[in-house]
Amino acid sequence: MKVGLLFGSFNPIHIGHLILANFMASNTDLDVVWLVVSPQNPFKPSNTLLHEFDRLEMVTLAIAENPNLGVSNIEFSMPKPSYTIDTLTYLQEKYPSYEFVLLMGEDNLPLFPKWKNSEKILEYHKVYVYPRSGSITTEIPEMSNISFVKAPILDISATFIRQCIREEKSIRYLVPDAVAAYIQAHKLYQ
């Protein structure tokens, strides 16, 4: 089984995440894409993050009817902040017959060398890089484990969605209906 891993805070999950994950599962050699809910990104402040279980529930609701997508809370039980190499190592030990592929936005490439043990990630795992709006293509050394995937670019951000909610503007079509209902029922991001 070849599993693509799309890491994110998903604060909240939106259609951009879902379109990308589904595209990668359907248009590459991946069998499935798991959305890995990160409790804390080492490069982002955690004070704006909704509780990890709310974010996990929204991802679960968003992908409920798509067999190409899965959700993982693997990082919930790991030390925080979460480091990708540690998560990949843990997953490989837990699922030794699976091949895990890291899915990364092009905007993360300049930061990638600063990631903990980034060279080990490339040594043991493939990385599929997808385009991001406003990204400037970065010159990186030719590496056999990095592949660029021409995926659709959607300029939607969780920050924009949270702002819409605070301003009492519609988020219809930006997030799945089940996610919008969850946000409204729990009065999130207000």
TrEMBL record:
User: What InterPro entries does the record tag this protein with?
Assistant: Cyt_trans-like, NadD/NMNAT, Rossmann-like_a/b/a_fold
EC number assigned by the record: 2.7.7.18
Associated pathway:
Cofactor biosynthesis; NAD(+) biosynthesis; deamido-NAD(+) from nicotinate D-ribonucleotide: step 1/1
Top-level division of the source organism's lineage: Bacteria
Database matches in Pfam families = CTP_transf_like (PF01467)
What keywords tag this UniProt record? ATP-binding, NAD, Nucleotide-binding, Nucleotidyltransferase, Pyridine nucleotide biosynthesis, Transferase
Gene Ontology MF annotations: nicotinate-nucleotide adenylyltransferase activity
Q: Which Gene3D superfamilies match?
A: HUPs
Domain spans labelled Cytidyltransferase-like: 6-163
What reaction(s) does this enzyme catalyze? nicotinate beta-D-ribonucleotide + ATP + H(+) = deamido-NAD(+) + diphosphate
Into which family does the record put it?
A: Belongs to the NadD family.
| Function comment | Catalyzes the reversible adenylation of nicotinate mononucleotide (NaMN) to nicotinic acid adenine dinucleotide (NaAD).
By what name is this protein known?
Answer: Probable nicotinate-nucleotide adenylyltransferase
Which species is this UniProt entry from? Pontibacter rugosus
Organism lineage reads as: Bacteria, Pseudomonadati, Bacteroidota, Cytophagia, Cytophagales
Gene name?
nadD
